[in-house]
Each structure stands twice: as C-alpha cells, then as structure tokens.
Amino acid sequence: MKNKLPLIGLFIATLIYGFINLLYRFVGDINYLSVAFFILFFSTIIMLPILKLSKKLREVKSLKKLKLILILGFSQALTWFLIYFAVVNTSIINAVLGFMTTPVFVVILSPFILKEHINKKIMIALILALLGILLIFDPRKLIQFIAPLGIISGILAGFSFGTNNILGRKLKDHYSPTSLTFLGSFIGTIFMFPLFLLSGSNIPNTISMSVIFLIALAGIVGAILIFYGLKYVIAQSASIILLLEPLVSIIAALIVFFEIPQPLTILGGVLLLSADVIIIRTQK
Question: Which helix (H) or strand (E) holds 170?
C-alpha cells in the first residue's frame, strides 16, 4: 500500500478512543445506558452540519443498501447496550476483555462476507495481539470476577462491533466515511431511545453532559477515520490495529494520572506493537 494515510487514520482513531476511556472518569455517577444514548444523540446532532458542509446529504438520503445500513445502526446500539450490561454484571476487566474478541469474529466472518483471504501473517498478528491483551488485563485477576452473563455479554459486544467493522468495509463503495458515521449514529439513536426511556435514566447534569458531548465529538472523528481506513485496509487488519486502544489508555493514564503500568502490562504492550508491525508490513 503506497498510500499510508488509511493506516495512519486507524492509528489516530486508536489514540482517540484510548483517550476517550480516560474521559469516562469525568462523566460522574450516571447510568451507563444514559451515557450511551446521549453519545449517539450528540453524535447525530454534530454530524448534521458536517454532512451539509461536505455535501453528503444527498448520499445519505439515497439510502442505498438500506438493510445493511439498518444493521449497521442496530449493531452500534447493540454494542453500547451489551457493554453496559457487561459492565453491570461483571468486572470492567472482563467486560473489556470480552469486547476485545472483535478481531476474532472479524477474521472468522470476513472470508464469508467480504471474501477476504486469511493468511499466516494475519493469524500470527492476531495471536500476538490477543496474548498482549491478556497480559495487559492480567489473567490472574479474571478468576476473581466470574459472572457468566456479563462475560457472555462482553463477547457478544465484540461480535457486534466486529459486525460494524465488516459492514463499514462492505459499504465502502456506496457511502463516504462521513455518511456512514452519521447513519450509524442516527439509526443507533433511534434504536437506543426506547431503551433509554424504559430504563428510567435521568438526564445528566451540565458538567457530565459537557464531558459526554466531548466524548461524542472525539468519537465522531474516530469513527470517520475508522470508516476511511476500512475503505483501503481489510477488516481483519483494521480490527487488529484497533486492539492498541487499551495500551493507549494505559500510556495516557501514566501521563495524566501518573499510573505506573506493571511489568506484565508492558510485555503485553510489546506484543500488541509487534502485532501491528506485522499488519503494517502486510499492507503492500
């Protein structure tokens, strides 16, 4: 791949989502479902003027591949809901670890849906990345939080997000990254709204709402970069690159909160970086 911009975009998206994880600390004690709904809602509102300026409104209104677009929006809403359920019913460690199974599902499904070939280098990168994730979250702590429903929910969230990545790749010739970001947020908001009402969630206060708005704004940039990357990088490789997110969060926590990573965490980070080096070399 002569043009390295798609790869750079995916790495920047990983940096953005890694720092977003830190912003959650400033949201306050608010129902996670409420946070998820308002992130999608704000994302939709922010994207409207961007769509108009980029002259993509006609593209959105065309509603090409409507079934796939509906699945895209549903997968975003489902991902938020499943993560919420996982966090409530198990530890954050288990919830995030389950979510990080995304590339496994992408590697399994992409040959059938996207006709992507699985090669040895991608499999090696996937194994290294998953080992790195295990070390970062310290497998010795997992046995302290056995909660089958929460763990299953986290894994299903990984499947849902993997579906989102595959659809982003499949729709690349029909919609721009900007249009996909808007449609995913808009349809996701529609799916999330009934859950928000049924949960009886309260509207966050001004400070929390400001943080949520900032998360939505950053998330939009990350989503556009991911969809842009998926236009040129196969879904398998993109999903492995995005596994750098927890490592970015750890580095950011070191800078912002002076949280010192453990030796196993550092080793896990080295394995993740090794996996990404392999992925970069496969992109010719």
Answer: helix 148-170
Half-sphere exposure of 229 (CA within 13 A, CB side): 27
Q: Could you give phi then psi for residue 54, rounded to 5 degrees?
A: -85, 0
Q: Using an 8 Å Cβ cutoff, are 231 and 172 in contact?
A: yes
CB atoms within 10 A of CB 220: 22
Q: 64-111 pLDDT, tens per residue?
A: 889 999 999 999 888 877 876 776 666 555 666 677 778 778 888 888
In whole angstroms, give the CA distance from residue 92 to residue 182.
29
- Structural contact between residues 111 and 123, judged by C-beta atoms closer than 8 angstroms: no
What's the rounded mean pLDDT across residues 154-177?
A: 88
Local structure of residue 115 (DSSP, 8 states) = -
User: What number of other Cβ atoms are within 10 A of residue 266's Cβ?
Assistant: 13
